Amino acid sequence: MKKRIVFATGNAGKLREIREILGDMDREILSMKDAGIEADIEENGSTYEENALIKARAAAAFAGPEDIVMADDSGLEIDYLNCEPGIYSARYLGEDTSYRIKNRNLIDRLEGVPDEKRTARFVCAIAAVLPDGRELTSRGVVEGRIGYEEKGNGGFGYDPIFQLPELGKTTAELDEEEKNAVSHRGRALRAMKEKLRKVL
Ligand code: IMP
């Protein structure tokens, strides 16, 4: 039987991206749910890496003895707002508040702020817990700017306000493959794949 990577996420979009990037590792890639793992995990770390490790360790406690367990944590950092919402990106203005409202609020908070001060980045950390207990982390970043209005229908979350100046588009205006090529998660996943290759 193929060895497995269990990814601690319930997000179908993330899982597609993960399968795309880690697909050549000759492992079956499962979500926590696919692997029959249910854990209510409190993300109380103070960095993306800590939160990713908390999730990966919690899932690893229920995983099989040969499974690699991975998790990610990500967020949007806006320089002008002292890197808010950062690790609180999902919880910003409340977990159940729509991104229409969250995005509108961030644009409003940048009212009158000129282009060069609207710099922001998406950050993603990936953590992996190996069967022998070793732990690895990787990080990916994509730099951009906060726009003046929402643009595009792709992606999710803060994508409609996150502009990539060199492409002249928001990440919500990219198709899935284009976004994976430049995204923080894509970069962190490719960095993790390299780290795993070296230790496995
Ligand atoms: P988590 O890593 O699933 O906890 O996600 C953190 C939050 O960061 C998400 O709920 C989004 O608000 C935001 N975020 C992370 N990655 C992206 C992205 O690729 N596009 C838009 N928003 C993102």
Question: If you had to describe this structure to a student in words, what would you say it looks like?
Answer:
With 200 residues, the chain is α+β, with helices and mostly antiparallel strands. Helix 1 packs across helix 5 (184-199). It has helices spanning 12-22, 48-60, 99-109, 176-182, 184-199, and strands spanning 4-7, 28-31, 68-78, 84-85, 119-129, 135-146, 162-164, 169-170. A hairpin with a 5-residue loop joins strand 3 and strand 4 (84-85). Strands 1, 2, 3, 4, 5, 6, 7 and 8 form an eight-stranded mixed sheet that branches. 29% of the residues lie in helices and 24% in strands. It is elongated and about 55 Å long. Bound molecules: inosinic acid. Inosinic acid is lined by residues 72-76, 89-90, 122, 155-159, 171, 183.
Low-confidence stretches: none
CATH architect. name: Alpha-Beta Complex
What count of structural domains? 1
Q: Which sheet architecture does the biggest sheet show?
A: 8 strands, mixed
Structural class, judged by helices and strands? alpha+beta
The helicity comes to 25-40%
> Given this structure, which CATH class is correct?
Alpha Beta
Beta-strand residue fraction? 15-25%
- Computed Rg: 17 Å
Question: How far apart, in Å, are the first and last alpha carbons?
Answer: 17 Å
